[in-house]
């Protein structure tokens, strides 16, 4: 097992490098870079993308070719020396390959630099936003597993019965509803949108959270996360339930289950003593993907709708403002986390079923 883990760890290096190369290359072709953003702010235009949306092609062409041939939109009215200082400040005075190598050298040492537009280190920003995303990812994944696994087992045992039919219908409906649409529905119904004002609409805690007792803080915390977690869980809940059911059905039909029943073992002993261990392998395999998708992927819209200041919003705002240290720093860190979680998933396989030997696969 040690040799397998070593191989997987070594494979992390080229995989991570490939992810960074692809994203760095794509960024080179995206219009509206950080210098254009800075110039737009200095000239009071707010956002460079307003220029692209404005449709004034003649003005854009004039601005792009003004000031000694500068290619930066918005350079009109600013001296070329100032533009040159911005290029040096953001590192764009160097060729792309040199910038990429310098960036990767810093990242290998876990030096992610500072945000260009927030004047704070990337690590501090991530640490500040992390609790919100951890809350959504952890609780959503935990609830999905706690509900989906027992329900999936029940559906497998009662396959073809009315219980299986109506629960399958409910699950399909839940899977078909987009998370953001379900979030809007929850807001309308339970957060004062049009009906009841049971849950708060924004934030992870109340303004007076520091003044509350320990029990009060816990209750306030769960009061705030109820709707966001439900909105994040809906699709994962449906997928995991059907995955558990199908996995159990495949195992129940195998010969060893018939043999165990023939020996006189109780149905509960057969189900949880023999079938459960084998059927759970594929469910465990989906854990990293489920957690990562909720933690990183699905958090943006949910955080925006419920005004939660987490990693999803941080990444979106960094991408819009072309804050590349935040974009690439978080991309590097989260890609590394995802790869490590994949290795931990393989180790979990061995814990569930010691018969699995990854080294023999060579």
UniProtKB/TrEMBL annotation:
Pfam family, one: BPD_transp_1
Keyword Transport: yes
Keywords carried by this UniProt record: Cell inner membrane, Cell membrane, Membrane, Transmembrane, Transmembrane helix, Transport
Primary location recorded for the protein, binned into one broad class: membrane
Subcellular compartments: Cell inner membrane; Cell membrane
One CC-aspect GO term: plasma membrane
Gene3D superfamilies: MetI-like (1.10.3720.10)
Keyword set includes Cell membrane: yes
Domain of life of the source: Bacteria
Gene Ontology biological process terms from the UniProt entry: microcin transport; transmembrane transport
Domain named ABC transmembrane type-1: residues: 130-349
Transmembrane segments: 9-30, 132-153, 165-191, 221-244, 279-306, 326-352
Membrane association type: Multi-pass membrane protein
Similarity comment text for this entry: Belongs to the binding-protein-dependent transport system permease family.
The name this protein goes by in its record: ABC-type uncharacterized transport system, permease component
Lineage: Bacteria, Pseudomonadati, Pseudomonadota, Alphaproteobacteria, Rhodobacterales
